[in-house]
Amino acid sequence: MSSEGVIRNRAEVEAKEVLEQAQFVVTKIPESSRRVPDFSVRKNGEAFFLEVTEKEPMEVFNQMLLRAKAEGFATLAREVEASNRLDGLVRGKAAQLDVPERPGDFRVLWIAAPHSDFNHVAEIVFRTLYGAVRVSVFPSLDVEEVAKVGMGVHYCYYYDRFTFYRVRRLDGVVLYGRGGGYLFVNPLSERVVDFRRSEICLMFAGVEGMRVVDPEVKHGENDMFMGFDVDRSDGHARWNYIREMYGVHAERVVEANVLDVAADEVPD
Q1: d(Cα 185, Cα 214) in Å, to the nearest integer?
Q2: H helical segments located in the chain
Q3: How far apart are CA 29 and CA 40, in angstroms?
Q4: Do 181 and 174 meet the contact criterion of CB atoms below 8 Å apart?
Q5: Taking burial as the number of CB atoms within 10 A of a residue's CB, which of 77, 133, 166, 193 is the most buried?
Q6: 55-83: string of b/e by CB count within 10 Å (b at 16+)?
């Protein structure tokens, strides 16, 4: 009689299939009286625990699709910012992945988003995990000088409170949907150096349609990083840190995505 657990939903089925196509050995962990991860995954002597969950489209997105069907066209504008709800989800799942009897195994959360709102979800996951925002950057408070030189818009990581800071035992988060996805690396993981060389990172770096996101290893030339000891509730402290570290002034940019959908673009 097999001791392997029962797979109960489409997100788990898909995660298992994707990993098995990359030659991972994926074993469903039986349900227990205590919270346990969904899968134990192995390849070439490495092992990691995998917890799988699904992120549904936002309700406003579904309402926009209904309007498009009924009226022929609809528009949706949404702010791009970190999500407290997503932060709570990741932190709760990270606790479920903590298996004390196997401290050497990596821990990965797999978020399935198999729907047409995938791109917006990816942006929100990115912002939440890394506290990333865009800031307008200018060299001086002198209006005439700014007019001459101009302003730039750069990413600043860790600008807000961010989930990865709070879950040091979680090595990475996968967001997967519509045949591709991202592996977000936790730069504060206790085993980040080894995880960056792991089989799952190699998989996401080497398969078309997949990507490893690891800002401290690969980032834009002008990207900035807020210090960990800066009080995120103090806007002046953040301003001072950027001025002292980078020699510029910076203000957060309020961002929004605007999505237009015609009736014939609405999935059945």
Answers
A1: 5
A2: 10-21, 59-71, 84-97, 118-130, 143-149, 163-166, 192-196, 199-206, 235-246
A3: 7
A4: yes
A5: 133
A6: bebbeebeebbebbeeeeebebebebbbb
Structure token pair of residue 181 = 């996805």
Backbone angles phi, psi at 225, to 5 degrees: -135, 125
* Helix, strand, coil in percent for the chain, rounding step 5: 35, 25, 40
Could you identify the residue written with the tokens 């949907």? 177
CA distances from 251 to 79, 140, 171, 242 (A): 17, 12, 31, 10
Which tokens go with 36? 């346990």
Q: How far is 71 from 186, CA to CA, in rounded Å? A: 43
For residue 172 the two structure tokens come to 């990475």
Question: Could you tell me the pTM of the whole model?
Answer: 0.91
Cα torsion through 138, 140, 141, 142, rounded to 10: -120
For 149, what's the count of Cα atoms within 13 Å in the CB-facing half-sphere? 13
Which tokens in the block code for residue 27? 């074993």
**Distance from C-alpha of 175 to C-alpha of 114, rounded to nearest angstrom:** 10
Q: How far apart are CA 107 and CA 99, in angstroms?
A: 9
Q: How far is CA 91 from the centre of its chain?
A: 13
- Residue by residue, pLDDT tens for the chain (268 residues) are 345 777 778 999 999 999 999 999 999 998 876 788 999 999 999 999 999 999 988 888 888 888 888 888 899 899 999 999 999 999 999 999 988 778 889 999 999 999 889 999 999 999 999 999 999 988 766 555 554 555 688 999 999 999 999 999 999 999 999 889 999 999 999 999 999 999 999 999 999 999 999 999 998 889 999 999 999 999 899 999 999 999 898 989 999 888 888 888 887 6
Count of CB atoms situated within 10 Å of the CB of 206: 10
